[in-house]
Write a structure and sequence with these properties.
By secondary structure, the chain is α+β, with helices and mostly antiparallel strands. Helix content is about 45%, strand content about 25%. The chain folds into 2 domains: about 80 residues, no CATH class; about 220 residues, Alpha-D-Glucose-1,6-Bisphosphate, Chain A, domain 4, CATH 3.30.530.20. The protein contains 10 helices and 12 strands. Strands 2, 3, 4, 5, 6, 7, 8, 9, 11 and 12 form a 10-stranded mixed β-sheet that branches. A two-stranded parallel sheet has the order 1-10. The chain is extended, with a radius of gyration of 42 Å.
Length: about 350
Amino acid sequence: MNTGGDDATKGGDSSGNEVRDDDDDSSGSSDDTIHAVPAPKINFFRQRQRKERDHLRESVTALEAQLVALQTQHAAAAALESPWRRRATLLKADNAYALLENDQLRQTLRAHIAFGHALRATTWPAPPTVSLVVDVPWRARRLSANAAQRHNAARAISWHQYTQLTRAMVAGGLVDCAVEKTSSVPKSWPGDIVVVETATCRLLAVDFEAVADTLWAVMVGGIPDVERPNFVLETFGDDVVYVDAPRRFAGLRGRNVDVIRRSKEVKRHVIVSRSILQDDVRCLDDDVAFVCNEEKWVVIDGSDGPAKTSVKFFMRSTPPQLGAARSSLEAMKEMETVVHNLMVDAIAMARGTERTVMQFL
């Protein structure tokens, strides 16, 4: 037997190690390629989204912490502010809003003027429609004949007066009322408008709620004032009353109808009043020579303790509007002494109301 030939046929070396031919290597490599798992692809878009989300979460956390710190800092600073600083901040905000509103109205007016000058050009765009001054109830001081609009206008007018309380007390020097006083000062506003401001401060040893109830009753006609009687015309809720207070000024018969609001607070009551210049239900009589234009603020403060009450009264009045009976040059000439008459009338009104109230305390 030729065993050597068989070994040679099988293939091998002298050391006995098996030698694989090229065909075996090719077959094994092909099998590995078929059964190998492909490497996963990296989704760079989702990876970038995750990074952005994590960054946003960190930013939100940091901003929330910053907001809490700023709120804490603001609360601490507000607690240390003086009352005068708080009032000044509020008045500054009111002035900024008024200037912004004035600028917007000026821009709208310019647009309407430009539109009027360019009516011949059919392609000229019309300016946007805005609410003009006369459309705002508290600016127009008008009560319409429509019941719902009338009710809303009366409440809006009286509420606006209440929002102006701080400004009125500052203007009258009544914020810190330590001593009794009475003053009446004429002022000139832009547009040659004459304004008379009357301020009165009284200190009473009576409970402030009793004073407030009595003063309210006098102003709405519940307690008759012989010199200046008031008559209730309508009520717009429990806290707003529409009254008629007949007035004579410079020897002429006039009309004075007011919307009066009462606001009850913890340690004080506030009563505000505003003249109505036009009433679509109650038209002017032919013999009415003028329509009063006044606004009043009364603060009955009992924060100093029981049986210690301060009454702060501030009234601003302008020359009355002339009625149809006196809309002539002669009537205007009769108003030459209007400032003096306004001052005398305002002081007389304050003192007359004070006397009536004191009779029932």
